[in-house]
Design brief:
The structure is a single chain. This protein is an alpha/beta fold. It has one domain (about 5-340): TIM Barrel (Alpha-Beta Barrel). It contains ten helices and 13 strands. Helix 6 (about 185-190) packs parallel to helix 7 (about 205-215) and helix 9 (about 290-300) crosses helix 10. The chain is globular. The N and C termini lie close together (about 10 Å).
């Protein structure tokens, strides 16, 4: 089965200390950009999540997804990722159901278990519980969106004869994605019959995920595989790329600090450290022909169906990316869809 390719933008709403772009402007220009992205034909808008970061990193996708949904009509919203250990699963099920109604059935949810030590400390949750909290939250979400009362008895959560309302617009609720940087994460995504957000080497993420999906009697081609991949379209990289590059260097340095403090498989997996070819901090930079060639090869190699590019470099106004984003949507994406037709 070949699913249609989808492309979009991802936002984390950040204002680094010392930036002359105030946070209200970051939010205002981000919502304007999301509206433009829809007008330009992009299909996706994802939000990321972290907590207690000095730059105000988005801690809760729910209000921004609601605001963006109210200003748009076709673009779909998701997360890469929602940190499930910090969410009450029933409250999250309610939030997503409301968002699905606000948006007319345009919500999805990318889920992960987190890694940053300071976040678990801040919420008073032992990091050793992150796997069980994530596993149980996924199960509870599925049950909560089943359309009837459910009972669940787990290690972390217990609910009896509970009926969650309102019902989502989409039957069975918003489609679920699971992030993976390890074989265990890949098997988790397959076990829950979820779409995949891979951030690990092929032999420990993509290949084990495909094997596990097939072992369960399902077709990997019926599932989406999506990543964040920065794309900057310009005919003059030497002139236009440096300010964005500097902002992205800041983004990288913050993540590197969190990952080093976590100290395990780039912070998010259960297995040993591995190179990460599907790194969400990687960028494709150049003219249309270069971007089309590089992204065609990248998507084909990894069997990707969904790609979103960063929409707001930290410290710059989000509108600084609008020219590149429009060219990505209008000039790069149509060629990618032609090149990869039938092969995703």
């Amino acid at each position: 089965m070949s699913l249609p390719l989808r492309f979009g933008v991802v936002h984390d709403f950040r204002c680094p200390p010392g930036s002359d772009v105030p946070m209200p402007r970051v939010y205002a220009e981000t919502f304007e950009q999301i509206e433009l992205a829809e007008q330009w034909g992009l299909e996706l808008c994802w939000f990321t999540e972290h907590h207690f970061i000095d730059d105000g990193y988005l801690p809760n996708f729910v209000p921004v997804a609601a605001a963006a949904a109210a200003r748009t009509s076709s673009i779909r919203f998701s997360t890469d990722i929602c940190l499930l250990p910090f969410r009450h699963p029933v409250r999250l099920a309610e939030d997503l159901a409301i968002l699905d109604n606000i948006s007319g059935g345009r919500m999805e949810l990318g889920a992960g278990m987190g890694y940053a030590l300071h976040e678990f400390a801040g919420f008073g949750i032992p990091r050793s519980r992150r796997v069980s909290l994530t596993e149980e939250a996924i199960q509870v979400l599925r049950l909560a969106w089943s359309g009837g009362p459910f009972t669940f008895e787990g290690k972390r959560w217990s609910f009896r004869d509970l009926r969650v309302t309102p019902d989502p617009v989409q039957p069975g609720g918003p489609p679920l994605w699971v992030a993976a940087t390890s074989r265990a994460g890949a098997e988790r995504a397959a076990r829950h019959d979820a779409h995949l957000l891979p951030q690990g080497a092929r032999d420990i993420v993509l290949d084990p995920w495909q094997d596990a999906v097939r072992a369960a009697g399902r077709d990997p081609g019926e599932h989406r595989v999506g990543v964040i991949r920065g794309v900057f379209v310009t005919d003059d990289p030497e002139r236009d790329w440096p300010p964005v590059q500097a902002a992205e260097r800041y983004r990288r340095d913050v993540y590197v600090g969190l990952i080093k403090s976590a100290g395990d498989n780039m912070g998010r997996g259960e297995g040993p450290r591995q190179p990460i070819p599907l790194n969400p901090l990687a960028w494709t930079v150049g003219d249309v022909a270069h971007c089309v060639a590089e992204l065609t090869a990248f998507m084909s190699e990894h069997g990707l169906t969904d790609i979103v590019t960063w929409g707001g470099p930290p410290g710059l106004p989000p509108s600084a990316m609008n020219a590149s984003l429009e060219r990505f949507a209008r000039e790069v994406v149509p060629q990618l869809k032609t090149n990869l037709a039938g092969g995703s």
